[in-house]
Recover the amino acids of this structure.
């Protein structure tokens, strides 16, 4: 049986992308080289670079007010770059805590400048997204949210409902999974290794008025420096951007982010349905109003069956279901590249497992 | 005729590495996935990660006193991380200027803490390496050198001759090109895209006593955090490290860094010989005592022939020879993966070109 995977990331890439990349492996466009062997200052790579930028713009309908950057260092480097670039003297960065990643983002900001957590879902153990009742203040440098919480399996259902003059979002785990209004955001960042490509490249969408020269900031940590140099200030991760471009092309061919949204909703429903119809044999970790369409988290009523579940899943060629250690149980990550068939097979396995071990 | 390349970086990878990576493309070790689709927390990837570290250690004979890290962001991020981590209050970072990259490193350090350029080759337009007559002081945070200067084509002939309690080196463009005594260095960093692999991963070798916890430093910028987490603090650039591991394995199979040194010396001599025996038709940019075995820079006496040289080289399937705009002329970058045959073909072309256009 074909192996299927539900990893939290790095995760599987679309099969069509992997086939295309292999077909171009040793001779990219007649050059006799792989694209990763090309100079980042040459026309061959520059075309890829521009295409990737343009496809980001097209797919997310990014307005001219915003720039697109490709950086390195993952979301973790953005945890530092956002406050380094955006906390202006006298202003405070505000954070919404919805899980471990937003906690980390807040902790890093606190090292750099005045920062405050203004809303938190911690008291529900991050099972439920908190009420977004924050009123912006003139003293805010920005308001930071995490759009999807991979560990707890929660996700803001509507990315258009927040309002803040400088709204910043970590969208590492759900960018390109559904349409939203980019113009409501001052800055969006996303490590590629869930929905955009392989690990090693980070997309940043930034409103241009935030690109302010700051001679005190190390150049490599300045958004303005990267923007001025079209993300070629230093050698970019050529191959990761090449694959990101192929992934974006694949999304376009499939019907764009609207189609991704329909698929992701259906995929998620397939697994949540298996949980909700198990009569308590399986339990969702996140409360229903906060459920993620990217990471489905659940536990077994009988915790002693956990290892057996993982074992039998792997015997059925289903991999990557172990939950994060801070939550336990299971997590099925169903990013864009995971097909409906994988979710069907998982739901079927869950039912069979329940038939075998349930009362 | 087969195309040959002399790019400054990203550059060609060994053919054997590209063949191996292609053969493992869609099914790494029977998992049905490419290694880039594996979780960085899984055993499959962790084995690669450990192998790459061990091979770095073996090939460079890295002592137990030093740790090996794999980071992102290239040498440009190291320009900031080195001073952020190593400039201690009351101490000054000292820089040796031998070209544009060391100038950049110094400029970035100056933003972060007390920094001083103590030796410079600028008055020779970086054609000649300066005399290393610097006496270390108790006030020094470290002494920073650049081992090979890609733009000017100069290279310190002996990496063992420098002595400083905290010697730091940017070896981006010549690491693994020859043996040297790692224990003489406090910290070595190298962007991968010349001798180690594709762009997107940076190797850091750091003496363990420098791994000091600093709660004020953003975690992602702290060597201590990366070392404590075995370079898995955040998602590593999985595929770049996989390829780096294959490149290191290739170096090992070829006979190690000593063999690389012999090959690089011969390759460099082939081209320098063509320059020196041209009776002034070609002129080396670097003075002979400072010549690099990685980047051979030269000009034509008759500058008006420059475009013709590039044009006819490309007609002969020879690419990547254009010099950096700050020096002009030509640059043949002959990193580890460039074979002797490429250098022979270039030397032959240079001779033919001279026969055609020389007096």
């Amino acid at each position: 049986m074909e192996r299927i995977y539900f990893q939290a990331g790095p995760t599987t890439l679309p099969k069509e992308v992997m086939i295309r990349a292999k077909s171009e492996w040793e001779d990219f466009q007649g050059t006799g080289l792989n694209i990763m062997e090309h100079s980042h200052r040459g026309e061959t790579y520059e075309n890829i670079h521009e295409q990737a930028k343009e496809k980001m713009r097209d797919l997310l309908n990014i307005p001219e007010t915003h720039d697109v950057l490709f950086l390195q260092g993952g979301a973790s480097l953005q945890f530092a770059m956002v406050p380094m670039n955006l906390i202006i003297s006298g202003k405070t960065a505000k954070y919404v805590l919805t899980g471990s990643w937003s906690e980390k983002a807040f902790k890093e900001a606190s090292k750099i400048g005045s920062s405050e957590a203004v809303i938190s879902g911690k008291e529900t153990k991050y099972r439920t997204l908190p009420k977004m009742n924050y009123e912006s203040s003139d003293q805010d440098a920005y308001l930071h949210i995490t759009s999807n919480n991979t560990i707890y399996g929660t996700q803001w259902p509507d990315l258009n409902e927040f309002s803040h003059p400088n709204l910043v979002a970590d969208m590492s785990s759900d960018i390109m999974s559904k349409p939203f209004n980019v113009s409501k955001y001052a800055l969006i960042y996303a490590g590629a290794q869930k929905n955009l490509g392989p690990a090693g490249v980070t997309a940043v969408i930034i409103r241009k008025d935030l690109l302010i020269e700051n001679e005190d900031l190390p150049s490599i940590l300045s958004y303005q420096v990267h923007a001025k140099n079209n993300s070629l200030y230093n050698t970019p991760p050529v191959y990761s951007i090449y694959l990101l471009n192929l992934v974006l092309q694949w999304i376009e061919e499939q019907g764009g982010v609207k189609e991704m949204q329909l698929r992701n909703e259906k995929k998620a429903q397939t697994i949540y349905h298996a949980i909700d119809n198990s009569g308590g044999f399986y339990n969702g970790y996140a409360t229903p109003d906060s459920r993620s369409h990217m990471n489905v988290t659940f536990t077994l009523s009988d915790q002693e069956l956990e290892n057996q579940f993982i074992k039998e899943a792997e015997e059925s060629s289903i991999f990557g279901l172990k939950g994060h250690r801070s939550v336990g149980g299971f997590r099925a990550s169903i990013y864009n590249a995971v097909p409906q068939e994988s979710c069907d097979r998982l739901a079927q396995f869950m039912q069979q497992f329940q038939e075998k071990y349930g009362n």
Remarks:
- Residues 256-357 of chain B form a domain with the Aspartate Aminotransferase, domain 1 fold (CATH 3.90.1150.10).
